[in-house]
């Protein structure tokens, strides 16, 4: 199982305990054959989770090669704090990254402009916009109602992601008036031209921000 080698002690992973419940863990140990691993919940809460021996979960891991998901079975569970021993039951599969890493109100600055002429791609006169949500495949910007753009309109987007300047071309796929508040509109943009390294930077930043929001423990990792 070559892809399991991305799972190493100290690596942060997300475990989908239920379809609507995802928790962040840190890997403690991995067996020599990469089939058994232990991990600990990195947040103070919850102190216990509704899992039993034999239950199946999905483990998601971000690596330089992309995002992978593993189907795993609970071998042992300890509560307060939550520790799991998992058996990986099959080879990893690639996750549709745009579906998993979508974050609301990320710490990202954005500017944009409508493209009506090839020269617009290089024009620095861009409008500031708040970022409502962001994924590796698209974003939703909050703009004044009077600045709404039609579906299919090409736009240039410039983002400041963790100190890195990212430039890309997108296409408007939806524009919702008076969202999230009256007088503003939600401009939904799908990325159509973006460097893969920039997409990975966005995904990596969102993953780290998810971890920070979850709240790390201040104490060091304890062996289980």
Structure description:
By secondary structure, the chain is mostly beta strands. It folds into two domains: 2-95, Pnp Oxidase, Chain A (Roll), CATH 2.30.110; 103-195, predicted glycosyltransferase like domains (Thrombin, subunit H, Beta Barrel), CATH 2.40.10. It has helices at residues 97-100, 196-214; strands at 12-18, 21-30, 36-41, 56-63, 66-78, 83-88, 93-94, 103-104, 108-114, 127-134, 138-144, 154-161, 164-177, 184-193. Strands 1-2-3-6-5-4 form a six-stranded antiparallel barrel. A six-stranded antiparallel barrel has the order 9-10-11-14-13-12. The radius of gyration is 20 Å and the shape is elongated. The chain starts with 11 loop residues before the first strand and ends in a 10-residue tail after the last helix.
> What is the top-level CATH class of the largest domain?
Mainly Beta
**CATH architecture assignment of the largest domain:** Roll
Helix content bin: 10-25%
Rg, Å, rounded: 20 Å
Shape: elongated
Elements, N to C (H/E):
EEEEEEEHEEEEEEEH
Total number of beta strands: 14
- Low-confidence segments, given as residue ranges, are 217-224
Q: Characterize the largest beta sheet: strand count, sense, and whether it forms a barrel.
A: 6 strands, antiparallel, barrel
Number of DSSP helical runs: 2
Mean pLDDT, rounded to whole units? Answer: 84
How large a portion of the residues is in β-strands, by DSSP E? over 45%
What strand order characterises the main sheet? 1-2-3-6-5-4
Q: How many domains comprise the coordinates? A: 2
How many angstroms separate the termini?
Answer: 24 Å
Category by helix and strand content: mainly beta
CATH topology of the largest domain: Pnp Oxidase, Chain A
């Amino acid at each position: 199982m070559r892809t399991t080698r991305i799972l190493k002690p100290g690596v942060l992973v997300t475990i989908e305990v239920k379809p609507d419940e995802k928790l962040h863990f840190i890997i403690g140990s991995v067996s020599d054959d990469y089939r058994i691993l232990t991990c600990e919940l990195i947040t103070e809460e919850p102190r216990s989770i509704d899992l039993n021996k034999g239950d199946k979960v999905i483990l998601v891991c971000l690596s330089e090669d992309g995002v992978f998901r593993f189907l795993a079975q609970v071998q042992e569970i300890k509560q307060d704090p939550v520790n799991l021993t998992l058996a990986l039951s099959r080879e990893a599969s690639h996750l549709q990254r745009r579906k998993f890493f979508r974050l609301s109100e990320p710490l990202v600055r954005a500017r944009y402009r409508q493209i009506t002429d090839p020269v617009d791609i290089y024009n620095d006169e861009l409008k500031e916009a708040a970022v409502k949500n962001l994924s590796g495949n698209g974003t939703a910007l909050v703009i004044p109602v009077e600045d709404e753009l039609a579906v299919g309109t090409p736009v240039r987007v410039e983002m400041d992601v963790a100190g890195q300047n990212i430039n890309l071309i997108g296409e408007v796929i939806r524009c919702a008036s008076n969202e999230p508040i009256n007088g503003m509109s939600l401009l939904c943009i799908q990325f159509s031209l973006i460097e893969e390294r920039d997409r990975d930077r966005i995904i990596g930043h969102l993953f780290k921000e998810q971890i920070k929001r979850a709240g790390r423990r201040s104490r060091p990792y304890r062996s289980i």
